[in-house]
Specification:
This protein is mainly alpha-helical. The chain is 47% helix and 8% strand. It has a three-stranded antiparallel sheet. β2 and β3 form a beta hairpin. α5 packs across α7. It is globular, with a radius of gyration of 21 Å.
Length: 223
């Protein structure tokens, strides 16, 4: 085999190794946002020959990502978390219903009494079995998704997070919601809207002060 051809194959093998290494590193960073991401990591990591080894400089690059790379990974993770919330909670209500769920996520994120990130809001309490969103504690819900509905949710989430699709105030500043066939007995909450199969609420007067350990208030139907 000509030496030129051999050199080309070696360079190609190294390029594949580098790409695989970066993909694996990125998926690990994104998966860290989601406490139930083990299956995601397993599916997203490509299967390649064990003989491929990234060059040392590339290892160092992956070990110390730039601020721009970190921002991209964080944004990707936030988009995924928002897409999951919209898909599992309101995919049967169309874009309007999914946007309403996104509004609640963003309202909580900026409320000051909840985590300050999308993933933090969506998966709050998941590690302790006290999920704010029911799907987050339902491992069965983390299985195969409907391809078209999941693609729609991902696209909508990307547009919202990137700022191409600003959210309105269809929920009236709601911080909580439940399915319309559920009666959680929220007598101290104020109803703000009914969108699709969900009823939305904001805090009542005596909920104005922060509490040390708020009880879960989002009880949507399980997908």
């Amino acid at each position: 085999m000509p030496i030129r051809t051999i050199d080309a194959l070696v360079r190609a093998d190294r390029a594949v190794a580098v790409a695989v290494f970066l993909v694996a590193a990125t998926v690990c960073a994104v998966a860290a946002h989601n406490p139930y991401a083990d299956s995601l990591l397993a599916r997203a990591t490509p299967e390649v020959s064990q003989d491929l080894e990234p060059p040392v400089p590339m290892k160092e690059m992956a070990a110390t990502p730039s601020p721009a790379e970190l921002a991209m990974v964080k944004m990707s993770g936030e988009q995924t978390c928002l897409a999951e919330a919209m898909y599992y909670e309101a995919r049967g209500d169309g874009a309007k219903g999914e946007e309403a769920v996104a509004e609640v996520v963003f309202n909580r994120m900026h409320d000051g009494k909840y985590p300050g990130t999308i993933c933090g809001v969506v998966y709050e309490g998941a590690g302790h079995g006290q999920c704010q969103f029911s799907f987050a504690c339902d491992r069965d819900a983390q299985g195969r998704k409907e391809t078209a509905a999941w693609a729609d949710a991902r696209l909508l989430a990307a547009e919202i997070v990137d700022g191409y699709r600003p959210l309105g105030s269809a929920t009236g500043g709601a911080l909580s919601y439940h399915a319309n066939y559920v009666d959680p007995g929220w007598g101290d909450m104020i109803e703000t809207a009914r969108i699709g199969s969900h009823i939305f609420y904001r805090r009542g007067q005596h909920h104005a002060q922060p509490v040390a350990a708020p009880a879960p208030v989002v009880e949507a139907d399980k997908a």
